[in-house]
Amino acid sequence: MEAAEQTRYRDGLSDRRRRLASAVEAYGPSEDLGRLIGEVDAALARMQVGTYGICETCHDPIEADRLAIDPLARFCLDHLTPPEQRALEQDLELAGRIQGGLLPRPDVRAHGWEVHRRYEPLGAVSGDYCDLVAAGGGPEQYLLLGDVAGKGVSASIIMAQLHATFRTLIDVGLPLETLLERANRIFCESVASSKYATLVCAKLGPSGGASIANAGHLPPLLLSAGGVTPFPASGLPMGLFCSGSFSLQAVALRPADTLFLYTDGLTEARNPAGEEYGLDRLAAFLAPRRELAPAALADACLADLASFSAGVPRTDDLTLMVARRTG
């Protein structure tokens, strides 16, 4: 474990120890408080001898996601006791249901747009972020798709934080550049320095105009009669620097034009030869199918991915958002 990371865990455990001691002073000693203090003391002692974060059974490092959620953990996932395994399974199932409740509806038609989303987490929870938010109940809509660095529970918690942050700020009615700057500052100041998220935010207007900000994400694709147009990153990922700024790219969509957004679970999928699906293949596949409805286009794309992968298991979450101009 790196020194900076261990210092962060030590500070967190020391703060937990002080809080527990204050609780004992306020409410008197109890069996539960005494047990928790003992567990914190034992974790701090493991830091002193250099065994913190090491499984006591196999002596391999405990999974980083697990340690981030439970800094008192003493065993890796492969060596949990049966009751611990059942509790973890129940927690993951509940987390997955909660995360699913944060997703927008699979299909939305409103204000001249038809939007479809496809969300396929690799496990029980996902670090992919997608949302469709109406601006104060008006005709403008915000299409958001992102990918939190890392996987598992810790990434899913950060995904939920992004969801809450953008939903709150969109209701305030800020200009898009300011919205992203504020969201970035909140995100940067509230997560660990090693965490960041790539993000695309597209503000969709009722007349077909769209403003697109790409914070370090894979380029969204505009499918039109003129071909396939990518919108490359115009800013750094969210959370890398608290003072980040984000430029906008403006585009006017005509009826039947489509914006196609995706995470790297699509383009970085591999076939048996180890080749990536890739952006070039995606663009070539989408170009002759631009007139398909959003759900049909997503179906066709995932079917092509399955044919390309030929049974090679996915290694990442996969999310698609397809927005078509209808009027």
> Roughly what is the average pLDDT, rounded to an integer?
89
The total number of structural domains is 2
Counting H and I runs of at least 4 residues, what is the number of helices? 9
Summarize the main sheet. Answer: 6 strands, antiparallel
Binned strand content: 15-25%
Number of strands: 11
- Poorly predicted regions are none
What is the CATH homology-level superfamily of the largest domain? Answer: PPM-type phosphatase domain
Helix content: 40-55%
Shape: globular
CATH class descriptor name of the largest domain: Alpha Beta
Q: From the helix content, strand content and strand pairing, which structural class follows?
A: alpha+beta
Radius of gyration: 23 Å
Across the major sheet, the strand order is 1-2-11-10-7-8
Q: What is the CA-CA span between the terminal residues?
A: 55 Å
Task: Using the 3D structure, state the CATH architecture of the largest domain.
Answer: 4-Layer Sandwich
Q: Could you say what the CATH topology of the largest domain is called?
A: Phosphatase 2c, domain 1
Compact description:
This protein has 327 residues and is an alpha+beta fold. 41% of the residues lie in helices and 20% in strands.
